[in-house]
Amino acid sequence: MFRNLSAALVALFLLCLCGNSMLARDLEDIRADGVLRHLGVPYANFNTGDGHGLDVELMQRFAASLGLRYEYVASDWNTIINDLVGKQVKPQGDAALLLGEAPVRGDIIANGLTVLPWRQQVLTYSSPTFPTQVWLIAAAGSSMQPITASGSLEQDIAAVKKLLAGKSVLGKNNTCLAPELYFLAEADARTLDFEGGLNDLAPAVIQGRAESALLDVPDTLVALSKWPGQIKVLGPVSEPQEMGVAFRKDSPKLHAAFEDFFRTIWRDGRYRALVEKYYPDVFTYYPEFFARP
To answer: What domains lie within the chain, and their CATH numbers?
Structure first.
């Protein structure tokens, strides 16, 4: 009986997710329309906000490979998944709650989107496109000091959380920087939801808005370059993570076309050249990711 009930609940979830399918499009519809709509938010060097960025160029090249016109559709972190799947999606821990209908505004998300369990419930991810991890940062003059690496990631994360006892930490709900994902309240940290964009987290810490902040690897690399000597990395808060391009679950042909395209540019070196253009330092931290065949 329980097995039948679980199957029914899964079927109901997928029915709800696809309920706005008349507004969604797979590859045939996109080809007929002649345009690929790329949903994005200005974020680090994935989308610099001025028509450039790793994922902007990636999507432009993908559209060109399909013979389509590229169109950028501006979104924000609170609505970008809604804009793709046509549902109001709210994360609750590792689960995704569907709260109602939303307009479908784009065909694909490429924005340094970290793979998270709740997102996987409503999205289909591509093969990993970029390595990441969540780190804790502080202003350079902070009394909080970087941990000494122990050789054990689990111990290092515990040491970083110990630093946070009684300290304020900025995060961003609905993103990979949501403090609840890393149980920081249980570490007695004073968690604050940052109202600005992810690109503004490092400046907020420099300005003293909080004693520390969560920041992922790509944004940290940009911040260290943009504000040299003004921030420091205290240590890791998460296990290694991965980013990818996201598709609606009812767009399997578009997903398959991207996989073919990405496999080709990964193997012939064009994707590596794009990464070198926007994140030259990432190869120092994650050489094994880019050594994959």
So the answer is: 2-131+242-290 (3.40.190.10), 134-236 (3.40.190.10)
